[in-house]
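Researcher: Structure prediction, please.
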Amino acid sequence: MKRMTAIESIEAGTDLLAGYDLIGNFRSLFESPLPLPGSLFLLCLRGHCSVNIHLSSYKMEAGSLAVVFPEQYLHIHQASPDCRFLFVAFSTELTRESSLFSKTLPCLPYIYDTPVIPLSDALFDFFTDLFRIAIKSERLSELVFQAEQKQSFYYQLLLCIANLNRKHHSTPATRYNRNLEIVRELARHVIENYKTERNIAFYADKMHLSPQHLSTTIKKTTGKTLTDIISTFVINDAKGKLRSSELTIQEIAFSLNFPDISFFGKYFKRYTGMSPKQFRQQL
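Model: Predicted structure follows.
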């Protein structure tokens, strides 16, 4: 891997980062808890360590796989001297693109509850091959592995891991299936209505649930708040229009049912750290 002394040294606009941890440098990046600036898939090649993912502690040994989502805290500690990893990371921007996010949302409950899983020898070989494909593809840059392929690769990784976890999940099937149905139904309603509705009560009413029950279920099964999920679609839509259309910022605000450009600007800045005008100027 390219030697990194800090997460901040990753170049802006990097959608995919993959590599071998040949010298044990990777774990030093997370000697203190840090929030992930993207989604990370971490495959332990040898040795062992303890990892804290979003305040929960797990053991990683050779042949185990960990998944950490954007803004979850990761802390790697008590690592043996020979602890080494393969890793593949995707930017938050890529993973939260609207159509991809809606597809991956049903996978999140299975992975959020069990972010570290031991692999059989056959599965370890399978994921090692997948990670090596990502490493080779990254080295070829945009020649063969473009944005759509990176999104598809991310989705396939999540789907594989979610399927593994689903077979071994400890939560009673009836309750867990109902929670997953709620997640899927919510995703459908948000896709259909996010341009005009951002009120939790609206979606709860659509699904014949109380706002409290809906919010609690979504947070427990996906690790995300309902507001986070809705805002992901709104912000990605706004970014797409700011990037690729001739619409004015005011027209974009009205297309997303904001009462005025000021309210839209405050909403956009809350989730991106910049105003719509600043976002458009940096393109």
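Model: The two ends are 29 Å apart (CA to CA).
Researcher: Thanks, that helps.
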